[in-house]
Structures are given as structure tokens and as C-alpha cells.
Specification:
Blueprint: H1 3-14, E1 20-31, E2 41-58, E3 63-67, E4 75-77, H2 93-104, E5 111-118, H3 128-144, H4 150-165, H5 172-179, E6 184-189, E7 195-199, E8 207-213, H6 224-239, H7 252-261, H8 272-294, H9 302-314, H10 321-332, E9 337-341, E10 348-354, H11 358-372, E11 378-382, E12 389-390
Parallel strand pairs: 3-5
Antiparallel strand pairs: 1-2, 1-12, 2-5, 2-6, 3-4, 6-7, 8-10, 8-11, 9-10
Helix pairs in contact: 2-3, 2-4, 3-4, 3-5, 4-5, 6-8, 7-8, 8-9, 10-11
């Protein structure tokens, strides 16, 4: 798929040329999982796999939406629609929610025809929804001259996901899609939104990053994500802090004792102590990873990835057998480290691998899945691509 193909498909759907094509990437989160909903630290990188939105402004205020990947034809909304969350369902809720969020924020968004093409796998934990939202926001910004800065664009795309689609995600995915820099990970403080590119330096070190898509689709709107977020918020209240990012690593043992004393029984379907331990140690792992990359030592990042997976599996309880198998097999086959990435309960894992071992690790993971009777995973190397941009 290319931008030219997206433009051509737009003409076939709507019978008129598009005004432009805008693109936003999926993302892999190198380290820092479930810390964004606790105002903590994350380190994503943009995938070279993109979602394209070909678009043309309309003078009548109507919003028409079409996706090459969705059945049902064009979704059409009248002037001023959607007026409220819940008015649009399915895939179209993502771009419609962006238009709603922009208007709610006071931006003069007029009508538009949009056609969507994507090579970001759905349900793979690679943030296909954020790629669609950010590409849509960038397209509407370009069509209507809104003058959005990238952080504001990401914030409004997150609002569309939270308030319109109904997934209480943090801002990492949208910021990664909007702000990442080619060849770099993005060190992001999700409270202050301070962000800086961190050079990965993988190729110079003879390393590759493998994505292992388990092909187990996850659905974050079904409650598991929301229960863990509520559990973290309850633990923060018990500790008297605004968010769990305010619990210093040096006082983790004390914080765990306080949570237990305040009533460490299961709430919202999860125990608060393990949630606290994961968030505090994961923020620490992000800081350590950034320091190693800044020092030009990406090879030493491997054990931090594996430790992060153990924490997500055992403390936050968001892994699944397929993710655990992918991680364990990759490490056993020679990967320097591996972890699940994204919301979990399926989706993808990443592995840091020597260049010479890419084929061996991939074959080992596929063989392990076959032996376990799972669907064969998609295993592919990735490089850090650029953030959202206008293509045509």
C-alpha cells in the first residue's frame, strides 16, 4: 500500500480527487507499560507501518467516512454530527470521535470526505486505533487550517478514544503516533508531556528489534483495562498521592506496606499491591533504558525488557499464554530480552535480537506456536519510523 494507492481509492469511492493524503504510524512500546495511565514514563517508537487518510473538504458540513478494511460502505454523518459519544459505533467511531473532540475544543471543523487505508495490524497491540485517530486529526487540521501543534493533536485524539470510543487509555499511543522521530524512541513524561527523542542505535550495535504478533486479538474496551486503571487510582488514594508515578522507587517497600495496611484486599478485580509494584518498577526500567541508550549501550537493555514482561505477567496480570510463550521462546533461542508490548491479553511481544539471530529466533517462535497448537504468529523486524506527516 502507498499514499498514491490511497489517493486512487479515494477517487474510486467518492468520484472526485482527494485534496491530500495524511499518514500516522502504529507504534511499539519499547518499555513503560501501563505507566501512562499513572502519569508516568514511557518509551515508544513509531513503526514503519502506516495508516493513511485520503481526504477532501466538503462545503456542506457533512462527514463521510470509508475504510478499505470495513464492510458496509460509506458512513455518512450530517452537519454537526456526531453530536455526542455513542452516536457512532464500530471502526467509524474513531474518526468520528476525532471530529467531535475537535469541535468540542472549539476548533472550526467543517465537512470532509475521508478514505482510510492501513497496514497496521488490527488487534495486535500496535495501536492501530491511535494511528487512525492521529491521521484523521492531521487530515482535518490540514483541510480546515486549524493550526494544531503535535502535543495538542495527540491530546485531542486521546480525548476521542477516552470520551467517544470509551477506552480509558493514557496518552502514550497518540503522542507516539504524532511526535516520534525516525531512528529514535520517544522518552515521554505523560504528566508534563515533556518528550525527547532517544537514539536507538540498534543497527550500529548489530541488533534488530523483532515484533512477534501472536494473532490473539485483544479488546481493551471490555473492562480489564478499566479495572486495572481503577485499581491503580484506588491505590494512589490509599497512599495519599496524585498518581502512582509519585511513589519513589526507594520507598516501594514502605508503599506496599501502607497499601496492605489500608486494606490490601482485591478491589476492581485486582490486588492493589502488585499494581503498585509494577508501576513503580516499570518507571524505573524506563529511566534505566533511557540512560543505557543515551550511553550507546542498547545491548544492555535486553534484561530490562524481560524483567518488564515478568512484571506485566505476574504483578499486573495482563499477559496470556501465547505472549508468555513468544517471550520465553525468543529468549531461549538467543534474544537478549523480550516483553509483551501494548495492552496485553493478546497482541504482540517484542524481542531484542542479534542481527545474525533474527531468522533463528523467528523460526523458534513459530515452531513453538505450532507445537502448542496455536495459530502461527507473524514475526517481523522493525525499525523506528517517523511520526505523523502529510504524504501528498
Amino acid at each position: 500500500m502507498t499514499a498514491a494507492q490511497a489517493a486512487r481509492a479515494f477517487g474510486e469511492v467518492y468520484g472526485t480527487p482527494c485534496e491530500g493524503v495524511w499518514a500516522a504510524p502504529g507504534r511499539v512500546n519499547l518499555i513503560g507499560e501501563y505507566t501512562d495511565v499513572n502519569e508516568g514514563l514511557v518509551m515508544p517508537l513509531a513503526l514503519p507501518r502506516l495508516t493513511w487518510v485520503a481526504a477532501r473538504a466538503r462545503p456542506d458540513g457533512r462527514l463521510r467516512l470509508h475504510s478499505a478494511a470495513a464492510a458496509g460502505g460509506v458512513v455518512e454523518l450530517g452537519p454537526g454530527e456526531p453530536a455526542a459519544p455513542g452516536a457512532v459505533r464500530g471502526w467509524a467511531a474513531h474518526p468520528a470521535g476525532v471530529a467531535w473532540a475537535l469541535r468540542e475544543a472549539g476548533y472550526p471543523v467543517g465537512g470532509a470526505d475521508l478514505h482510510v487505508e492501513s497496514e497496521v495490524p488490527l488487534g495486535a497491540g500496535l495501536s492501530s486505533s491511535a494511528a487512525l485517530q492521529v491521521a484523521t486529526a492531521l487530515a482535518l487540521d490540514g483541510l480546515h487550517g486549524l493550526g494544531l501543534g503535535r502535543p495538542e493533536l495527540a491530546r485531542l485524539a486521546q480525548r476521542a478514544e477516552n470520551a467517544f470510543v470509551g477506552v480509558p487509555c493514557g496518552i502514550m499511543d497518540q503522542t507516539a503516533a504524532a511526535c516520534c522521530v525516525e531512528g529514535h524512541a520517544l522518552h515521554l513524561d505523560t504528566r508534563s508531556l515533556a518528550a525527547r527523542p532517544v537514539p536507538l542505535g540498534l543497527a550500529a550495535a548489530g541488533l534488530r528489534l523483532l515484533v512477534m504478533d501472536t494473532r490473539v486479538a485483544h479488546e481493551l474496551g471490555e473492562g480489564a483495562y478499566a479495572r486495572r486503571r481503577a485499581g491503580c487510582e484506588a491505590a494512589a488514594r490509599a497512599l495519599g498521592v496524585r498518581a502512582l508515578r509519585d511513589v519513589a522507587y526507594e520507598r516501594l517497600a514502605e508503599a506496599l506496606a501502607e497499601v496492605e495496611a489500608a486494606g490490601g484486599a482485591e478491589r476492581h478485580g485486582v490486588r492493589p499491591g502488585p499494581l503498585v509494584r509494577h508501576v513503580v518498577t516499570e518507571n524505573r526500567r524506563v529511566e534505566e533504558t533511557a540512560a543505557l541508550l543515551d550511553a550507546g549501550d542498547p545491548r544492555a537493555v535486553g534484561p530490562l525488557l524481560t524483567a518488564g514482561h515478568a512484571s506485566l505477567r505476574d504483578d499486573f496480570a495482563v499477559s496470556c499464554p501465547e505472549l508468555d510463550l513468544a517471550v520465553a521462546t525468543a529468549v531461549g533461542a538467543g534474544a537478549l530480552g523480550a516483553r509483551m508490548t501494548g495492552g496485553g491479553f493478546g497482541g504482540s511481544a517484542v524481542a531484542l535480537v542479534e542481527e545474525a539471530a533474527v531468522t533463528e529466533v523467528g523460526e523458534a517462535v513459530r515452531a513453538a506456536f505450532a507445537a502448542a497448537g496455536h495459530r502461527l504468529p507473524h514475526v517481523f523486524p522493525v525499525t523506528a519510523g517517523p511520526g505523523a506527516h502529510r504524504v501528498v
